[in-house]
Write a structure and sequence with these properties.
heterotrimer; A mainly alpha (about 325); B mainly alpha (about 325); C alpha/beta (about 350); B: MetI-like fold; 12 helices; C: about 350 residues; alpha/beta; Rossmann fold; 2 domains; four-stranded antiparallel sheet; 11 helices; globular
């Protein structure tokens, strides 16, 4: 078990290293105006060269890369250029994380509970009315672009439920709509997978044996089917919880929530290279770490994994 | 009781029937189970799904209509700004009516024409992405499965790639390469090939190692026959599903990227641009039609493709043929 | 082998059972009027090709038919009650595990991979016997594991199915089946998925459990070797019907039905070096269609004309032996006994 966790962590570290390097190299392909901030037009070529040189962007690539790694190890993500010029990325992010985290976590827990409960209900009433209703919901949520139904939720729910349109930290009532919007997609995902895994389990031979030995359908559902169907789901719990830090790009900017997701959208629109780079790296790192945690958790829940050497990926 | 009635019957049976029939037992093979055809069963199962058939109809009509719409009579140019000949002002925010069926937008362009032009753009992106995914996926998947030396490397690449959220890759690529039609297609295709490649790789290993295929090979079945009979049906259904699902995904991604400022330039009518333009005016009740019309068309397209793709995948699964 | 007590009432009696399934919108008749008696303490083997309805027949005795299947007519009498009228799960819960238990074909998939062996066995014990505390149930589980030949039960209790070999898993499945001392044990191809060496051990285990717990066992198998070894009586099934029933000796050495004959002739053990192995030509009939006459006629090289037109009656040959074939009609011509059957009698008959 420990050996597996170590091996898997090492693998994640390697992935992180590759991602960091690739993102760095890709960012070097960017037009350089992203590094100057406002007042870019007033600078002449010599001044630009001087600034770039000063920033270390004229050093050989290997040196740049080395310096980049060193700064990253110290959790130094550089400074913003256009979003809040010369403020360190860490400083900017510090204020943003709590908003995304609290909204994200509320949404994750709501979707887990509602989604898994719906999935169970659907599997138990397979091909019944509730199953069809749930499937309809899943199809609509999966097919219609989120960007479209978010707008309609904002448009109509604010009106019918008399909720505020914009987010305000001090008014918890303004949290409701963003949380609902964020949860709809993941509820559909949890419900779909839970239903699918349960239906898969229901077709397995050991269910026949459990029936033959005289167990009630209800007990089979709870002590065999649900339990086994939850195991593959568990793998994605840590990632979804951790990803809450990243917030939702769309929701945050739609409701003007001062969170991480909105920050990425803003920094893209203002072409703040340093901030975009930092956020992309943070989001990737969170995802890599989340999937690592998921695999380790999975190995703890599923006794079969300790002996195999498979892991990583999904 | 049953035996009694039988006894009575027995006596009525003519004696000459108790002779050997000398029937040819070889014929009994034909009398056995019905001859099963993969594609016929697939089509049968699909046609049984009434909703899917309905959506297939919607798709066919939509596709035909978007293609012939520009050459139909009385169609306007999607980018032409209409000027009122009397006031010499632009026809701004004209309500839907006989002249402008879906009304005009904030600068006087015909919304009807823009929606269909946008649909063409989005479908083009969708099909291109689907096609790229399939081509890249098949090439990489085959190499992955067949060339033992590449297996480790590609598996590692897959693991790395798979650990990064798709959205991040999409944003990073469109940000770096500046939004344009080809950038969008490239960015979406490069995030989508993964699952296709893995599917193909699994297929290849199945072809190589699965017992029924080994048995088939031992019996002297030529490779091309194994490929066409055992692999092709599955591959074709996977491709159909990927292309069908690539369209709603591409449309969704395009709308999303446009929203965060990484979409197509505003001059190109696309569904994302239309939604974005509509969103700005959403809070004004009288202008809401500029959001509704694109939203309805988008939902119709995405739902149709999604449902049809899934229904086809179900129908193509031999497990559902029984 | 236990002798058959014919004077005793059968413990389980199937009467003109018809079972149908709905598939692809069409109705398939899986069991076409089957009648069968099972006597206390005996071992009955049901043999036949795949798809002949062996499994369906026994599953119906436990209410385990798939959701698209139903008992169309007929009766299943167990201890005086007609189980074919049971509609709700509650009725069947009194039967399953406690009165009739089942061992499935594939031990690799019959156990829940995510639960310890001990939990899965104990679960069964706790279902039907109310234990005062967990400790008693655990001790009972250890005893049960020991009785099916699992050493070191305390350690094994905590292990998961993937830590066991196929044969060991089948022992666990058997332990689960006999946990509640059922009257009848149905073994659905209990050894098919196992190694030949393990097969013998499992059969031995079943025989010893039969003695200890006074079990009545139904073996479903297409392995005639197993049948010859364990069965007191044999029922031969073809296309959803029982075509011949008799004691093991009667079926093996005096087979009457052409299908039984063909089945015995195709035993690989009887093959003579250099000769082509005998096989039954063709495929079983399509159960979606109504079958006219004798279902086996199209594959029977010696079929009579009447076989294609009229369904043969079930005729009693001896108190224990009956067959459903026109060959038993006085007007029918004599069909010579197959060489293979004679060889079988010479080879196996002498050693018994």
């Amino acid at each position: 078990m420990i050996k597996y966790a170590l091996k898997r962590s090492f693998q994640s570290l390697g992935t992180l290293f590759i991602v960091v390097t690739v993102v760095f190299l890709l960012m070097r392909l960017m037009p350089e105006e992203g590094y100057f901030g406002s007042g870019f037009e007033k600078l002449d070529e010599v001044q630009k060269e001087a600034i770039l040189k000063n920033m270390g962007l004229r050093d050989p690539l290997v040196i740049q890369l080395k310096n980049f790694y060193i700064r990253l190890v110290q959790f130094d993500f550089g400074t913003s250029t256009t979003y809040r010029p010369n403020v360190s990325v860490n400083e900017i992010i510090k204020d943003k994380i709590p908003y995304s985290l609290w909204l994200g976590l509320s949404s994750v827990f709501i979707s887990m509970i509602v989604g898994i409960a719906s999935g169970i209900t659907m599997a138990r009433n397979k091909n019944g009315f509730l199953d069809k209703l749930g499937t309809l919901y899943i199809v609509i949520i999966n097919a219609v672009p989120a960007a479209v139904y978010y707008l309609f939720l904002q448009l109509y729910l604010t009106k019918f439920l008399n909720l505020p349109i914009l987010f305000d930290v001090d008014r918890p009532i303004s949290w409701i709509l963003p949380i609902i919007s964020m949860s709809l997609g993941s509820i559909a995902a949890y419900a779909m997978w839970m239903r699918r895994y349960m239906v898969d389990e229901l077709n397995k031979d050991y269910i026949k044996l459990a029936r033959a030995k005289g167990m009630k359908s209800k007990s089979i559902m709870t002590s065999h089917v649900m339990r086994n169907a939850l195991v593959p789901m568990v793998q994605y719990f840590p990632a979804s919880i951790l990803m809450a830090i990243g917030g939702s790009l769309y929701i945050e900017s739609l409701y003007s929530i001062p969170g991480m997701g909105g920050l990425l959208v803003d920094s893209i629109q203002r072409q703040d290279n340093a901030l975009v780079q930092a956020l992309v790296l943070i989001f990737s790192a969170i995802s890599i770490f989340g999937l690592l945690m998921g695999d380790i958790l999975m190995a703890m829940v599923d006794p079969r994994i300790k002996f195999g050497n498979s892991g990583g990926g999904r | 009781m049953k035996l009694k009635t039988h006894d009575r019957l027995v006596e009525h049976i003519a004696d000459d029937l108790f002779e050997f029939a000398n029937a040819d037992t070889d014929n009994s093979e034909i009398a056995g189970y019905s001859n099963y055809s993969y594609w016929r069963s697939t089509v049968q199962v699909f046609l049984k799904n009434k909703t899917a058939v309905l959506f297939l109809g919607v798709i066919v009509i939509l596709l035909l209509f978007t293609m012939i719409q520009p050459v139909l009579p009385n169609q306007k140019d999607p980018t032409f700004i209409h000027i009122n000949p009397e006031t010499f002002m632009q026809f701004r925010n004209v309500k839907p009516g006989t002249e402008f069926w879906f009304g005009t937008n904030a600068i006087g362009q015909d919304l009807w024409a823009r929606i269909w032009s946008g649909t063409r753009t989005s479908l083009l992106i969708g099909f291109a992405v689907g096609l790229f995914e399939v081509v890249i996926g098949i090439i990489i998947g085959t190499l992955w499965g067949y060339v033992k030396k590449l297996d480790r490397i590609i598996t590692e690449i897959y693991n790395v790639w798979n650990n990064i959220p798709t959205t991040v890759i999409l944003i990073l690529l469109t940000y770096i390469f500046r939004p344009s039609l080809s950038t969008l297609i490239f960015a979406m295709a490069i995030t989508g090939w993964l699952s296709m490649a893995r599917l193909v790789r699994n297929l290849v290993t199945i072809i190589r190692d699965r017992e029924y295929n080994m048995a088939s090979r031992c019996l002297g079945t030529p490779t091309y026959r194994i490929l066409t009979k055992n692999m092709l049906p599955y591959l074709v259904s996977v491709i159909m599903l990927r292309v069908a699902l690539a369209i709603p995904m591409a449309i969704g991604a395009e709308v999303f990227l446009t929203y965060i400022g990484l979409g197509l330039p505003v001059q190109i009518p696309s569904l994302g641009n239309l939604v974005n333009e509509g969103r700005v005016l959403m809070m004004s009740q009288s202008l809401r039609y500029q959001l509704f019309f694109p939203a309805i068309v988008i939902s119709m397209i995405t739902i149709s493709f999604y449902v049809m793709g899934n229904a086809f995948a179900d129908a193509a699964d031999p497990k559902n043929h029984v | 082998m236990t002798s058959i007590n014919r004077t005793r009432e059968p413990i389980l009696k199937l009467k003109d059972l018809v079972i149908k399934f709905n598939l692809r919108g069409k109705t398939l008749t899986a069991i076409r009027s089957a009648s069968l008696e099972l006597y206390k303490g005996e071992s009955l083997a049901i043999v036949g090709e795949s798809g002949s309805g062996k499994s369906v027949l026994t599953k119906s005795c436990m209410g385990l038919l798939d959701a698209n299947g139903w008992i169309d007519s007929g009766e299943i009498i167990y201890k005086g009650y007609d189980m074919s009228t049971y509609k709700v799960e509650k009725d069947w819960l009194k039967i399953r595990g406690k009165e009739i238990a089942m061992v499935f074909q594939d031990p690799m998939t019959s156990l829940n991979p995510l639960k310890t062996i001990g939990k899965q066995v104990q679960e069964t014990l706790e279902l039907h016997q109310k234990y005062l505390n967990k400790g008693d149930a655990k001790t009972a589980t250890y005893d049960l594991l020991t009785s099916v030949g699992i050493d070191n039960p305390e350690k094994r209790y905590k292990q998961y199915p993937h830590e066991f070999s196929g044969g060991m898993r089948q022992r666990i499945v058997i332990a689960i089946a006999v946990a509640c001392r059922p009257e009848i044990l149905i073994c659905d191809e209990p050894t098919t998925a196992l190694d030949v060496t393990i097969q013998a051990q499992i059969i031995e285990l079943l025989e010893s459990l039969q003695r200890v717990y006074d079990l009545t066992i139904i073996y479903i198998t297409h392995d005639l070797g197993v049948v010859a070894h364990v069965a007191d009586r044999v029922a031969v099934m073809y296309a959803g019907e029982i075509v011949e029933v008799g004691t093991a000796d009667e079926i093996f050495y005096e087979p009457i039905h052409p299908y039984t004959n063909a089945l015995l002739s195709s035993l690989p053990q009887l093959g003579v070096k250099g000769e082509v192995l005998s096989a039954i030509k063709g495929t079983p009939p399509n159960l979606f269609k109504t079958i006219k006459g004798d279902a086996f006629a199209p594959r029977n090289p010696n079929a009579l004309k009447v076989d294609f037109l009229h369904e043969p009656p079930m005729v009693q040959v001896s108190p224990t032996h009956k067959a459903k074939t026109w060959l038993l009609d006085p007007r029918a011509p004599k069909v010579p006994i197959s060489e293979n059957v004679i060889r079988l009698k010479n080879e196996w008959g002498s050693s018994e």
